[in-house]
Amino acid sequence: MKTGFLANAAIAAAMLMPVPAGAAEYTTILLEKVVNRTPDQTWAKIGPYCSIATWLKVKCVLTVGNGVAVGTNRLLNDNNNEIMVAITPYSYTYTQPSSTILYHGTLAVEPLDRGRQTRIVYTLFYDQAPLGTDQAKAENRAARTKRFNEALDAMKALAEAP
Hints:
By secondary structure, the chain is α+β, with helices and mostly antiparallel strands. The chain has helices at 2-16, 39-46, 52-55, 134-160; strands spanning 26-35, 60-64, 73-76, 80-88, 91-95, 104-112, 117-127. It has a single domain (24-160), classed as 2-Layer Sandwich (Alpha-D-Glucose-1,6-Bisphosphate, Chain A, domain 4), CATH 3.30.530. It contains 4 helices and 7 strands.
């Protein structure tokens, strides 16, 4: 009788334990573009939190915060929330809280050539495991790389415009 009680207790305890999710498979996409402007000039044109509307060609509305503080939320295309989780004078990092892939992005500018030029750096970090197959992961990566390379080209043009 005592053995049955302990076995049932062990089964009940096991049922209450969280089931581990599949192993995460984090990946990073690092993209860069050199701009013939100073970091100040570059950041002024591409850095404001909703300037993404111009260089990524999306609708952007600040729904919480002012765009210069952690916790600011921007809504892209009326359905994609992005919350700022870090900020410096020349960078910010955001996350998409409803994303199933733990998506984070960072936009930063770095001085080059004693500040006469700027390197724009865009880093995407996410868990590709939920995407499933190797083919789906590769296609997703290729699409993100293409989209953000196009965004970097638009940022360069915007920053270098008179």
